Amino acid sequence: MLYLIADASRPVSFLSAGNLTNEDQFLHPRRVIDSYELISVARGTLYIRSGDCDYCLTPGCFLLLLPDECHSGTRPSPGELSFYWTHFRLSDPEARVCGEQETAAYFHDSSRPRYILPKTGTLSPNSRVNVLFVQLLDLSRRLGCFARTQCGYAQSTLLLELTNECSFRRRLWQQDEKIPLEIADLMEWLQLNYDASVSVAAVAEKFGYHPSYLASLFKRYSGYTVTEYLNRQRIRVAKNLLTSTPRLTLAEISEQVGIGDEKYFMRLFKRYEGVTATAYRKAFAQKERNRI
């Protein structure tokens, strides 16, 4: 697998974006462009060749096309096809394409923000990448002196989201015992839907498992029950809210993270963090007052 590695301390330069739709027999034209292009398929199948590799992109698949690399369709797409695309340039003159082994070091280095983008891959069922694509398309249609700047930041957010998603899934797969893709997707879904009121039975139905089997499988690979894992995500978000939004009451924070009972929220927080939510907030506030 190849990865694009680039500095992410500054936004990328947005060029254009769109949503191509075709009813039948679409064949991608042969061309060479001087910018990067990211493609994400929403419906149908796109057959495309980039460099020396052929790709069959189905819904949820993405492909990063590199500058000055010839790409073209290899066969017509049968039936309806829809994919998002965007062209951009990087501000990092030292951006490079690396192999799997060399890229591993960048995943473990948090000293500076980076885009770490696979050449191709599959988005998780709950990925926010295509949602950000839609937002980028909306921004690209606006007029005004700040429109292109906004698009640059929106484009950067999309690429960072893709980086984050790939990094998350990579961490799961690097554990000693490989986590099934379905469990990795479930863990990510719980992280994204921490504020939802869900039961183990409802989650099991969504992911196609018997509740008892899901509970056993999830505990085996994560070390937690589904409920405990979800509650830990809620407390993680609550810690951010406690320190960043001093005007929110504990009841409001409890509600925002999906726990309707304030007293239960307070008990959970004390259990996982070792201090009360109020003490946690006060400790952070004291540090803020002492900062020079």
Write the layout of secondary structure elements.
Blueprint: E1 3-7, E2 13-22, E3 36-43, E4 46-50, E5 53-57, E6 61-65, E7 71-73, E8 81-89, E9 96-98, H1 100-107, E10 114-118, E11 120-122, H2 129-140, H3 147-173, H4 181-192, H5 200-207, H6 211-222, H7 226-244, H8 250-256, H9 262-273, H10 277-290
Antiparallel strand pairs: 1-9, 1-10, 2-8, 3-6, 3-8, 4-5, 4-7, 6-11
Structural commentary:
With 292 residues, the protein is α+β, with helices and mostly antiparallel strands. 45% of the residues lie in helices and 21% in strands. Strands 2-8-3-6-11 form a five-stranded antiparallel β-sheet, with helices on one face. A three-stranded antiparallel β-sheet has the order 9-1-10. Strands 5-4-7 form a three-stranded antiparallel β-sheet, with no helix packed on it.
Short description:
With about 290 residues, this protein is of the alpha+beta class.
Shape: globular
**Rg over C-alpha atoms, rounded to the nearest angstrom:** 22 Å
Structural class: alpha+beta
Report the strand count.
11
Count of helix runs = 10
What percent of residues are in strands?
15-25%
Q: What is the overall pLDDT average?
A: 86
| Most strands sheet | 5 strands, antiparallel
Strand arrangement, major sheet: 2-8-3-6-11
Distance between the termini: 46 Å
Can you tell me the residue ranges where pLDDT is under 50 for at least 5 consecutive residues?
286-292
Helix content: 40-55%
Helix-strand string:
EEEEEEEEEHEEHHHHHHHHH
